Structure formats: C-alpha cells, structure tokens
Amino acid sequence: MAPRKRRQRSVVLWAVLVALAALAGTAVWVVRFAAASYVRQRVEKELAQRLDLEVSIEAVELGWFPPEVRILGLRAVEPGAEEPLFEVDSVILEARWSELSNPPWRLHAVRAERPRLRVEIAEDGSHNLPRLSAGTGGRGGGGLAIGAVEIVDGAVFLGERRVPVDLALRDLRVHAAGAGAGAFAGELEASDVAIVLPTGATYFGSVAARGTWRDGQ
Known about the structure:
The protein has one helix and nine strands. By secondary structure, the protein is α+β, with helices and mostly antiparallel strands. Strands 1, 2, 3, 4, 5, 6, 7, 8 and 9 form a nine-stranded mixed beta sheet that branches.
C-alpha cells in the first residue's frame, strides 16, 4: 500500500476514534445531567411532602466511581417566611457499589457542611419545627447504615442565640417500620460520637434511641 494511502487511512481512523470519544463523553454528560436533575427534583418533592415546607436545591452533582451525591444549597422555608427554617451549604453522600447491592442499604459516609436551623419557641411552648409525615403508614419497613457522619460548622439559632453544632460519629444504624395507620416506629444507634460543646469542650459517647411518631407530630 502506498505511504500516502496509509496516512489517509490513519487520519480517517484517528478522526473516527476522536468522534467516538466525543460522542461517548457527550452521552455520559447527558446521562449525568439527566440523573442529577432527576435526583434534585425527587429530593425536593420528597422533603417538601414530608416536612410540609417549600424546599429548593441549587444543584446536585453525581459521581460514579465511587458513587457519590453532592447536594448543594438546600433550603427549607415555611410558606410566607423570609428566612429559611433550615439550610445547608452542601450534603455529601458517599457509598461503595458493594454496599448498595442488597438491603439493608449502607452508605460509606455522610458529611453536612454549614447546616443552619432556626428555632422559634413561643411562651405557650409551641414551636416552628415541621410536623413529620409518616406517609401511608403501612407495615413495611427498612433500615439504613452509615459508616461515618460528620457535621461541620453547623449552628442552631434560638432567637438571637447561636448554638454551634460540630459532631462526628461512626456506625450509625437507623431502622423504621410501620406502626399502624399514619405511624412509624424507629430505632437509632451510633457509636464513637464526638460532639463539640458550646464551651469548646468535646463530648465523647454513644447514642441509642427509639420512638414512635404519627402524622402531624
């Protein structure tokens, strides 16, 4: 084969490979964008229904290897309110494919950066915290385990008072199951808890709790 024809075929093959790579990259980008948009809309809708608040998310970013979800600029606002009841700069959920293959589901780590909660308590003891919705209240249930949870530079505002919240814990296990119409029973356990107190000291311990809630409670 003449050198010129070989060069032409090489150029054509290279052009085809470049075009295929560009198409593949575009396809991956479209899938990630579509998936991120779906996750954002689903999280907004689910939280709004559960908390009876107006929920918005600036953006959702997805990673595949390892699987990771970044929720950016989450805000939950009471209808008609100017300031959000709850907001967080970012929530990062990390997983491993091997831990997502079968239930109970397990996340490798969850990190919340600069979450802020504004609580108002009236003289009669009423408050502005949302009423949780238990959904349909069936007898089904599910569990979730998280290897590590971290809250960084968080704060709870009680009127004019700001209470800093910084904590880290390991081996968080949550289980919830239907307890009748409109009700759920839940259990929570965590070990190696480290909470930075307002005084600056760090409290170490573990957590175990259980309870039942109904719609509107």
